């Protein structure tokens, strides 16, 4: 990155940390080719009246220079600090007034032209007593307007200021879907059930989508990272009348059940954009924590809990990370461009630290027999759960009571982690005849998926049955359009598939001489 | 002392080697800006403060040595 500095004093020493060219003193006659321009004028050393005149004159020089540079190159301007102000007449504010006139003019310019950024030089000066800011010997020997001994400090202060300006603009916005771009869970509530458009809260999500679309038109690249079935989402994009952000606006999609850290890394590779240019929005604090700890380069803002806070949330994120200096047509085509360039190789890269991540969440699995208090919630779960549901049997609470009365067992699972308690989010219904048992239903809310909890839950249940003398457990997978993700679940838990017909699979596991190990990644209650 | 002076000059000017006879006149890299850097580094190295008149004189290794010797007496 090549810089060019306009200046009125000897300041080379202060910009040694940058590859920089310099103008002559107070010289704006020629503008050298550079990628960034810096305007660094120091308060002139002169009697007040003259200094004041000069400072005002600098505003004209700056305006001229800004128009020469044009709007597509960044111009970073420093405010002036009146380092030498001789006040014999106490009411004489000529220089101070001129300095504030100058500084106001800078802020005004930066408001008018988005390529002009102001750095508050006073922020640096205020760290030192006035007397240390200038070394008069070096001022007179070589027009050093600042104490040369401060050069190193200035360099580190200035580069952090420049970084703040440069880094402001992120390139990619990665979005979750459920409860982020619409209210509710698509896999559970269906296209008709999610909140988007119409009354609140749908209205809030609708505005949110419109705002994001505008951002995309300004050159921000959009991507999706969501735990969902891609077919469901495609249907949503196609059929929902109020969808604003449709498939064509996204440069990359990761709609699957893999962990999101891997997914975001893949998006970065696919788009060939560094992860430090990514912002990730997700309503789920656990997902946010995952990305924060495993891809710290990615910016992960806290997501508002209430949909009515979405507009201000958007404003904050957009201004903080996606401020745009100038829009070019190239910017506008970016999503398209990246889509075309993207290499759509599917990569299977395991998240090596997944175990550590799970442990860091301090997950507690509380597995209990259903009781009078929980049986209603259990029946509701059988009614509502579609995706992680092996048989999709629907029951009312009376049905469940009957199963218990016929020697059956019903286990409920509550999951809590360091972010809070999700309540009852898993259910296993077991029918028992003598020493033989059968998993009638096994289901989990998708809120708790992605942490291998489902496997731990199943194993815990099997171990409990084993300790109660059960010898064999049968299980069945009955496919529906929504539960394909669990087609091989029982295989993964250690059941043997006896036979399958019409995609219905029958399983068995023999608990005699079976050592069932529980994962140590969770605590069990 | 001469070696310390030469070391400072070498580092500021980023040169491989500095001769005893080196001076602003013979050394292309030794321009007025670098001269100032040399003065600043020498002030730190020898814990002295040069007067402007002295700075103006310090245009060669030999002259620098003279000035510093006088100051340290």
Written account of the structure:
- The complex is a heterodimer of chains A (525) and B (73).
- By secondary structure, chain A is α/β, with parallel strands linked by helices.
- Chain A folds into three domains: 165 residues, Rossmann fold, CATH 3.40.50; 181 residues, 3-Layer(aba) Sandwich (Rossmann fold), CATH 3.40.50.1000; 163 residues, 3-Layer(aba) Sandwich (Aminopeptidase).
- Chain A contains 19 helices and 17 strands.
- In chain A, the strands form three sheets. In chain A, strands 15-16-14-13-12-11-10-17 form an eight-stranded mixed sheet, with helices on both faces. A five-stranded parallel sheet of chain A has the order 2-1-3-4-5, sandwiched between helices.
- The radius of gyration of chain A is 32 Å and the shape is elongated.
- The two termini of chain A are 58 Å apart.
- About 4% of the residues of chain A have low confidence.
- Chain B has 73 residues and is mainly alpha-helical.
- Chain B has one domain: Non-ribosomal Peptide Synthetase Peptidyl Carrier Protein, Chain A.
- Chain B contains four helices and no strands.
- Chain B is globular and about 30 Å long.
- At the A-B interface, helix 5 of A face helix 2 of B.
Q: What fraction, in percent, of the residue positions of chain B are helical?
A: 55-70%
CATH architecture verdict of the largest domain in chain A? 3-Layer(aba) Sandwich
By CATH, the topology of the largest domain in chain A is: Rossmann fold
Can you tell me the CATH topology of chain B?
Non-ribosomal Peptide Synthetase Peptidyl Carrier Protein, Chain A
The total count of strands of chain A amounts to: 17
Order of helices and strands of chain B: HHHH
What CATH architecture label of chain B applies?
A: Orthogonal Bundle
Oligomer description: heterodimer
Beta strands of chain B, count: 0
- Given helix and strand content, the structural type of chain A is alpha/beta
Strand count, sense and barrel status of the largest sheet of chain A are: 8 strands, mixed
The percent range for helix content of chain A is 25-40%
Tally the structural domains of chain B.
1
Helix segment count of chain B? 4
Question: Could you name the CATH class of the largest domain in chain A?
Answer: Alpha Beta
Uncertain segments of chain B are none
């Amino acid at each position: 990155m090549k810089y060019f500095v306009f200046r009125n004093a000897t300041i080379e020493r202060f910009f040694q940390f940058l590859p920089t060219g310099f103008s002559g003193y107070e010289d704006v006659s020629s503008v050298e080719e550079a990628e960034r321009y810096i305007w660094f004028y120091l308060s002139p050393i002169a009697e007040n009246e003259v200094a004041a005149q000069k400072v005002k004159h600098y505003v004209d020089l700056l305006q001229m220079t800004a128009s020469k540079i044009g709007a597509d190159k960044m111009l970073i301007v420093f405010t002036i600090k009146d380092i030498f102000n001789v006040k014999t007449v106490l009411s004489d504010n000529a220089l101070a007034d001129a300095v504030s006139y100058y500084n106001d003019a800078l802020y005004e310019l930066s408001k008018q032209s988005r390529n002009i950024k102001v750095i508050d030089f006073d922020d640096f000066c205020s760290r030192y007593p006035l007397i240390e800011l200038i070394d008069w010997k070096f001022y007179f020997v070589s027009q050093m307007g600042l104490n040369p001994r401060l050069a190193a400090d200035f360099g580190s202060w200035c580069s952090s200021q420049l970084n703040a300006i440069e880094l402001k603009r992120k390139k990619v916005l990665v979005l979750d879907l459920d409860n982020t771009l619409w209210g509710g869970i698509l896999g559970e509530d269906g296209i008709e059930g999610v909140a988007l458009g119409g009354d609140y809260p749908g209205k809030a999500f609708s505005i949110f989508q419109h705002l994001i679309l505008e951002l995309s038109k300004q050159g921000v690249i959009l991507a999706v990272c969501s735990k969902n079935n891609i077919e469901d989402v495609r249907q949503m994009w196609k059929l929902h009348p109020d969808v604003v952000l449709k498939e064509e606006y996204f440069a990359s999609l990761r709609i699957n059940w893999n962990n999101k850290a891997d997914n975001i890394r893949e998006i970065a590779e696919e788009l060939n954009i560094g992860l430090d240019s990514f912002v990730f929005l997700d309503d789920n604090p656990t997902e946010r924590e995952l990305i924060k700890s495993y891809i710290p380069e990615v910016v992960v803002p806290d997501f508002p809990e209430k949909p009515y806070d979405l507009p201000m949330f958007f404003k904050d994120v957009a201004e903080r990370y996606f401020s745009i200096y100038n829009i070019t047509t190239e910017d506008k085509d970016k999503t398209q461009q990246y889509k075309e360039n993207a290499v759509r190789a599917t990569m299977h890269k395991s998240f090596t630290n997944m175990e550590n991540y799970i442990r860091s969440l301090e997950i507690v699995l509380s597995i209990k027999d259903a009781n009078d208090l929980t049986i209603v919630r259990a029946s509701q779960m059988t009614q509502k759960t579609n995706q992680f549901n092996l048989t999709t049997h629907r029951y009312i609470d009376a049905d469940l009571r009957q199963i218990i009365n016929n020697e059956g067992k019903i286990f409920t699972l509550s999951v809590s982690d360091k972010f809070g308690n999700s309540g009852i989010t898993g259910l296993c219904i077991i029918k028992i005849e003598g020493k033989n048992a059968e998993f009638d239903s096994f289901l989990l809310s998708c809120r708790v998926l992605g942490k291998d909890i489902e496997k731990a839950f199943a194993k815990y249940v099997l171990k409990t049955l084993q300790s109660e003398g059960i010898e064999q457990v049968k299980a069945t997978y009955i496919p529906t359009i929504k539960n394909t993700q669990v087609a091989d679940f029982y295989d993964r838990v250690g059941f043997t598939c006896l036979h399958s017909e019409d995609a219905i699979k029958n399983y068995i596991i023999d608990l005699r001489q079976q050592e069932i190990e529980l994962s140590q990644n969770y605590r069990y209650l | 002392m001469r070696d310390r002076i030469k070391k400072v000059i070498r580092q500021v000017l980023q040169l491989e080697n500095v001769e005893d006879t080196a001076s602003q006149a013979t050394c292309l890299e030794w321009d007025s800006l670098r001269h100032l850097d040399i003065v600043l580094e020498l002030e730190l190295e020898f814990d002295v403060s040069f007067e402007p008149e002295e700075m103006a004189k310090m245009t060669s290794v030999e002259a620098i040595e003279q000035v510093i010797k006088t100051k340290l007496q």
